[in-house]
């Protein structure tokens, strides 16, 4: 028995991989992603516009793992947005986030004399999870990290 197209649902689950990329990852829906990012980064950063980037990145060596982002975008100021949606529990999701962010940071360092100052643009890793990242702290639903100097508590880099 075949299903007629007219019988299929006209709604897309935004939390499915297809729905997430359909709603946020298409040029004609770019405003949705900008609004979403601005609501998450409210008071810290304003996204005026962005450009979608390639979501696949091979390792430098053949034995290195390939990285596939759900969405990767660059803002008008050069800031990078890595936006992930993960419904299924993943034991080492925080490590994955650090790995994805680190790969992006290492690829942004400029070569030659231009890279001597190592100035990096802000990089935002934003993940919507269908599970608790920290079961022991179950009332916590938002995480934001910083690299700080342990001695004087000076913020060196913000990881959001």
Textual characterization of the structure:
The chain is an alpha+beta fold and 160 residues long. Helices cover 22% and strands 22% of the residues. The protein has three helices and eight strands, in the order ααβββββαβββ. The chain has a four-stranded mixed sheet, sandwiched between helices. β7 and β8 form a beta hairpin. The protein starts with 16 loop residues before the first helix and ends with a strand. The relative contact order is 0.12.
- Span between termini: 49 Å
Order of helices and strands: HHEEEEEHEEE
What is the radius of gyration?
Answer: 18 Å
The DSSP helix count reads 3
Task: Find the count of extended strands (DSSP E, 2+ residues).
Answer: 8
Strand order of the largest sheet: 1-4-5-6
Mean pLDDT: 82
Determine the structural class based on helices, strands and strand pairing: alpha+beta
Beta-strand level of the residues, as a percent range? 15-25%
Which stretches of 5+ consecutive residues score pLDDT under 50? none
Assign an overall shape: globular
Largest sheet: 4 strands, mixed
Q: In which range does the helix fraction lie? A: 10-25%
Task: Give a topology summary.
Layout: H1 17-24, H2 30-40, E1 50-52, E2 56-57, E3 67-68, E4 71-75, E5 80-86, H3 93-108, E6 123-129, E7 145-148, E8 155-159
Parallel strand pairs: 5-6
Antiparallel strand pairs: 1-4, 2-3, 4-5, 7-8
């Amino acid at each position: 028995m075949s299903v007629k197209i007219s019988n299929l649902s006209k709604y897309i689950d935004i939390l499915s991989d297809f729905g997430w990329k359909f709603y946020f990852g298409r040029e004609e829906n770019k405003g949705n992603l900008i609004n979403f990012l601005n609501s998450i980064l409210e008071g810290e950063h304003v996204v005026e516009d962005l450009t979608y980037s390639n979501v696949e990145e091979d390792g430098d060596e053949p034995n290195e793992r390939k990285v596939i982002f759900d969405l990767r975008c660059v803002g008008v100021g050069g800031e990078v947005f890595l936006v992930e949606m993960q419904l299924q529990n993943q034991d080492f999701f925080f490590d994955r986030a650090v790995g994805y962010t680190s790969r992006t940071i290492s690829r942004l360092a400029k070569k030659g004399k231009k890279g001597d100052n190592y100035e990096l643009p802000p990089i935002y890793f934003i993940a919507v999870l269908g599970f608790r990242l920290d079961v022991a702290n179950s009332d916590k639903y938002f995480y934001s990290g910083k690299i700080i100097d342990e001695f004087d508590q000076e913020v060196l880099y913000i990881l959001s």
